[in-house]
Design goal:
Order of helices and strands: HHHHHHHHHHH
Strand content: under 5%
Distance between the termini: 35 Å
Largest sheet: none
Number of helices: 11
Amino acid sequence: MTLLNPNTIISECLETAFDLKTYIRIMRIVGNVNFRATEEFRKMYKGFYKVRQQSPQWYDKYFSLMEQQVTENRSFEDLLRIMYQVGGRIEVSFVSKLMATVNAQLPIWDKYVLINLGKAAEWERLRSADTENRIKEASKIYTYIKCWYKSFLENDDGKLCIDKFDEALPTYKNKLTDIKKIDYLLWSKR
């Protein structure tokens, strides 16, 4: 028995680094008819996405919105406003994760994605803006992120990145959307 199989070691390491098994479990649960964010699901989700140090009310509202989002499809801006009312913060990353969990064709707003797309300084400059202006600008930045993903996936570099991802992780070729594959690549580029 070989401890390190040269034919599978890279894909196994990437699978672990990206925690792909947990991601697939989360998406499978949310994709079920009559999805409910059980305590077990909440624990798995919070661990995967590092959702920490929130109030019980915040968690209840967040997971309730996730359940509702399956059929109601609220906008990024609307979800930001709702979560702001609960926690007093503009939760761009967590709201995008909620949306991308319900719809795998949506990207995640993450610190590293923002840096890699050259939008981190723009978002940082808005820190002192009033809440309503920050929410509107956050919505514009998220629209930019979505457009960037779409454009990138249509160009040769984007197609090649997807091919390379699929080559490295063939087991996940048809289990992850191309958006999620690019998400993982941008997230890991630090």
